[in-house]
Amino acid sequence: MNLLEELPDQIHVVEMLPRDGFQRLDEFVPTDEKVEIIDRLSETGVDEIEISSFTHPRAVPTLRDADEVAKQITRHDDVTYRALVPNLVGMERAVEAEVDKVNALVTVSETYTKKNQNRTRDEVLAEMDDIVELAHAHDIEVEAGMGTSFYCPYEGKIDATETLAVVDRVVESGVDEVTLATTMGLANPVEITERFSAAFDAHPGLDMGLHLHDTNGMSLANTLAAMAVGVDRFDSSVCGLGGGVVLPEGMSGVGNTPTEDLVQMLTQMGVNHGVDFDRIEAAAHDVSDRLDLGATSHVLMGGTVERVLETVASGQE
Amino acid sequence: MNLLEELPDQIHVVEMLPRDGFQRLDEFVPTDEKVEIIDRLSETGVDEIEISSFTHPRAVPTLRDADEVAKQITRHDDVTYRALVPNLVGMERAVEAEVDKVNALVTVSETYTKKNQNRTRDEVLAEMDDIVELAHAHDIEVEAGMGTSFYCPYEGKIDATETLAVVDRVVESGVDEVTLATTMGLANPVEITERFSAAFDAHPGLDMGLHLHDTNGMSLANTLAAMAVGVDRFDSSVCGLGGGVVLPEGMSGVGNTPTEDLVQMLTQMGVNHGVDFDRIEAAAHDVSDRLDLGATSHVLMGGTVERVLETVASGQE
């Protein structure tokens, strides 16, 4: 019995920087620069890019140019361009923007839903039916992005039955994919294993993804645990930039799983994923420089086979 | 099929700070302070502590007080006190110091062995027989600590057959346990799975451990992969302090798996391990303050359920 026996044949990497990353920044990244960065990310081999969020501009001012970004980027045939939509109004903008897919947000925690969207979870879930109908009428795929699937900033640990009830409900709505999100970055490999296993048991063959934050440093371990039960789609962000939850001081460099660290692990494991490690590594350095982020991932710090061996060799001379 | 099906019943945590950590520092930590720190670590519930190295004082001057440290620490019945021995002279000192166990060093890489010990691997392996004989005559357990089991700073990736040949050889010498060490911190979960699986296939029931460095950020993922094939002993270091290999600039905060991050993961996974998380967290903060290390682990940065929820709650007021 080992981890490698039933790994998925192909892993899909979803780049979150343009939404989860730019959303976290205090400053507005100019539209031109967003477009340049997205165009660069389109050439790395990632499967999908979440390009922005069709949220009300007052709610997330740093992403107020979502419609413009969608218009200006260069679309590649082999990349899925998706956007976050928090409600039906957002979905209407997504149709207008001609994205390939939407990440339709629902949060498992009642308290979080109330505080962030000023609605009940049932209201959000009822609207999911309309979002799916509108999206499918325009050949747009729908992924239900399930925030607080494990921990909530207000309620603490979320009961697994709550998470599974929401999975059941969005599957009923007819979504194409379901993503569990560790909004807080506090989930562990057992919770990951148990919740995905239960979801797959209830819905065999369901297309499931995992959105990881790395607050507790377990995001690569959680990735491995999820792969072992058949999850084949992972959200990550170049430089790890991302996250909407207030974290302790000193965690400013910690957000989503850094894409470059994820891709390094998958590449070295010999798993198919389609991303060019050198390109994603270079893109991470570029983004880190542009946004003055520092070395927020192990790859950025130099923790790769190539750079470590280079360092040793240069020290020998 | 999932990760959790065959996890070991009990994980043994080995604290490496007093050897791998203090060895890495440029400055000599005064003997009194070493003893205080080891005594504090003895009260955290860790199974073993590697208290020092019986290496020639000129080779590792920061550990030149190994004999004194062994004398002055307070021994607890439920803690195994072990020391590194690089050769038979070191083993003689270990007998004198009355340690419970030795970590008898052998490096898989010929080049590394030559450069670090100025001997051939066969010479080191031949001496292993004498070390085991002397140790067992004094009821001291012997673990073969196999450096460069995956990557070597000079040779790059080490062939798995080389690693397995050394496992065979130390088992022949009669060692009680075998530990594979990622000296470079560059191994990935597939390599971990494959090498341990092969070793267990060749030597069913062999007591095996894993010594991880976190250069590539995969040490918790590697821990999980190793646990899934039955490895139940893990070396780690409070604050992650440790490591003898030259790493790229910017990796000064990266060394062994931080014990507090490992223990957080094991605790939350519900695996038995005996370590008190609060005590190890407090010890990590204490060591970080004493040695001015900064926040070199996710736990030290505040990435725990408790601290994140506290932070959110205080932000709400």
Strand order of the largest sheet of chain A: 1-2-3-4-5-8-9-10
CATH architecture annotation of chain A: Alpha-Beta Barrel
- Within CATH, the superfamily of chain A carries the name Aldolase class I
What is the overall silhouette of chain A? globular
Oligomer: homodimer
CATH topology of chain A: TIM Barrel
Count the strands of chain A? Answer: 10
Question: Portion of residues in helices of chain A?
Answer: 40-55%
- Count structural domains of chain A: 1
What pattern of helices and strands is seen along the backbone of chain A?
EHHEHEHEHHEEEHEHEHEHHHH
CATH class of chain A: Alpha Beta
Low-confidence stretches of chain A: none
CA radius of gyration of chain A: 19 Å
The N- to C-terminal Cα distance of chain A equals: 45 Å
Largest sheet of chain A: 8 strands, parallel, barrel
Strand content of chain A: 5-15%
SS class of chain A: alpha/beta
Biggest interface reads: A-B, 65 and 63 residues
Family (chains A, B): Belongs to the HMG-CoA lyase family.
Organism (chains A, B): Haloferax marinum
Protein name (chains A, B): Hydroxymethylglutaryl-CoA lyase
Domain Pyruvate carboxyltransferase (chains A, B): 11-281
